[in-house]
Specification:
single chain, mainly alpha, 79% helix, globular
Length: 233
């Protein structure tokens, strides 16, 4: 794993096409190697399952909107923490405790153990416009939790971007976009495949399969919260 990280970091300083590929790879790794990021996959699966969404195209779209919400929050957190002179994305111990609470509460909600007040972020079936807004809002909330983890994987990319931005803003932006595509692609793929499986198995939002998928997803999200608490010990 160390050899992989070293190779990708060195690739960031190679040719531009190689740097794009390395940045994309860092985006993928930021999901698959991070426990807090991995919890976003069961969350979007639980969300889509709760909707009974069986159209693959809609599954991809909702997952994409969810990831856009995540990145909006991550960008805002990065700007604020950098302006305060902190490491980008570092929300401090109290922020991480709040993050863990969000994970656990959402997980308990997916498992139907607790009910949440009407905050605009819903997981129950509703209309087209509302479901898009809810996916985006859920991403905004979850982005708070993912910010610190994301910047840890973005560090090699940001190092090159900061150097390049003074001479070639477009190229610097392309590297960030490549990271975002890799990062979001994993979540979007999970969302699309979830809808595909639901359609293939002819699930409905009242079936036992949907119920247990939501519960398992909720349990995995709770594990993400517990892991966040563990890192504070």
């Amino acid at each position: 794993m160390d050899a992989l990280f070293t190779s990708l970091t060195e690739a960031m300083y190679g040719s531009f096409s190689l740097a794009l590929l390395a940045s994309f790879s860092w985006g993928i790794l930021s999901i698959v190697l991070s426990p807090c990021h991995l919890s976003s996959i069961p969350l979007i699966i639980g969300f889509l399952t709760a909707q009974g969404e069986k159209k693959t195209s809609r599954g991809f779209l909702l997952a994409f909107i969810f990831t856009v919400g995540i990145f909006v929050t991550i960008i805002v957190i990065g700007i604020i923490t950098a302006a305060l002179g902190r490491i980008m994305g570092d929300v401090g111990p109290y922020g991480k405790y709040a993050i863990a609470v969000v994970f656990i509460v959402v997980g308990l909600y997916l498992m139907d153990i607790i009910r949440l007040p009407d905050t605009g972020v819903k997981l129950r079936p509703f209309g087209t416009k509302s479901v898009f807004l809810s996916a985006f809002s859920l991403g905004l909330v979850f982005g708070i939790a993912l910010g610190p983890c994301t910047f840890a994987f973005m560090a090699p990319v940001l190092g090159v971007v900061f150097q390049m931005s003074s001479t070639n803003v477009i190229a610097a932006g392309a590297l960030l976009l490549s990271f975002g595509l890799g990062h979001c692609g994993v979540i979007v793929a999970a969302g699309g495949l979830t809808s595909r499986i639901q359609s293939y198995l002819n699930w409905t939002n009242r079936s036992n399969a949907v119920l247990w998928t939501k519960r398992i997803a909720g349990f995995l999200v709770i594990l993400g919260g517990i892991y966040t608490l563990y890192t504070l010990l």
